[in-house]
Amino acid sequence: MQTEKEAEDDASPEEYVALSNFTGSGSDQLSFSRGDRLLVHAKPSSEWWWAELREVIGYVPADYLRERAAEEEEEEEDTSLEDPWQDEEYFGSYGTLRLHLEMLSDKSRTEAYRQVILSNRASLRNKVVMDLGCGTGIISLFCAQLAQPSVVYAVEASSMAVYTRQLVKQNGCEESVTVLQGRAEEIELPEQVDVLVSEWMGNCLLFEFMVESVLLARDRWLRDGGVMWPSSAALTLVPCQANSYYAEKMAFWEQPYGLDFTPLQPLAQQEFFTKPKFSHLIEPDDCLTAPCDVISLDMYTLQVKDLEEMKGQFHFCAEKSGVLHGFTAWFTVHFESLETGGAAVELNTGPYSEPTHWKQTLFMLDRPVSVFAGDSISGSVVLRRNPVWRRHMTVTLTWNISSSTEDTDNCQVGTKSFPMWR
Q: Which residues are known catalytic residues?
């Protein structure tokens, strides 16, 4: 009798079409270009499949492929029917309480916005405010109760807007807060605004690219001389150790229960280290160098076209000896004061501040590298927006480790790309 596994192995491969380019960063990853037809032999997980292209077999990210039915094989590939913004999935997730509970429970994040309103309450009086992507309306309620603006336009595209209206009324703010349900690109306001406030940041700062909606709203509705909150943002990077995570995902296979499972280590590397690790909490002691900002954004001058590809350079000097497992990234945003000479408010999601729901993002190298105090770690980081799935991106890190001694054999050069998708 044939087992379920044998039946799966004997199943005919399914043909899929690549939606975008993918450059495999490991020996078992299959590189391909948009429009290539791949034969999928197995689907060991929801994220990684085993596929074949031109008689070469390897792992491919499932989200980069779309099934092509047999009767469609002769038709021209048409992505116009796809939803490049993934609105149903994206806004659907914000129509439930899970994400809002996570965000509202993040005191560092929520109190930072409250402090922005509180410290600028005098200047916000009688001003017109837009709260873009307002969610449950917490920022709009802060504005109404603490600053008495003339009106707050609370804009929310998800179905949560229905409940936001109830919350506004429940908290006695219906006279000053107007809830508008719709995408930023489509809503219409009766006037321009003095302040555009939004909590648009994602993992690694840009992920999900809500920032594009903010920029489009800025260009349509922010009056000349108006204020953006946040006013600026920066992505920060640091070379780091990740001993516990490496032990959990890779070293574990060396001798579990006294058995040699090392043949599974290449598979573990593919499964656990190819994508970035979200919600990582790095300990300050695991930072091998001082962190540095690699990408900075001015929210007044940033353009939508700039989001397609962002590059940054870094040069670190190792402050202590250790094992370089990868790089950790986080972001900081600043809210300029409306008061002359007033202090800006900062929201920092790094390891030297109180943890936020974003935490940090860890990018693991394929293999650890020993570094020593005084070694130089230089290179670049590139954030490329996915050309098809517009909320996704790929982060590419290139590094060069130069020994502080005369030991030239200790020099290491490498590059690795990390696809980021939901």
A: 199, 208
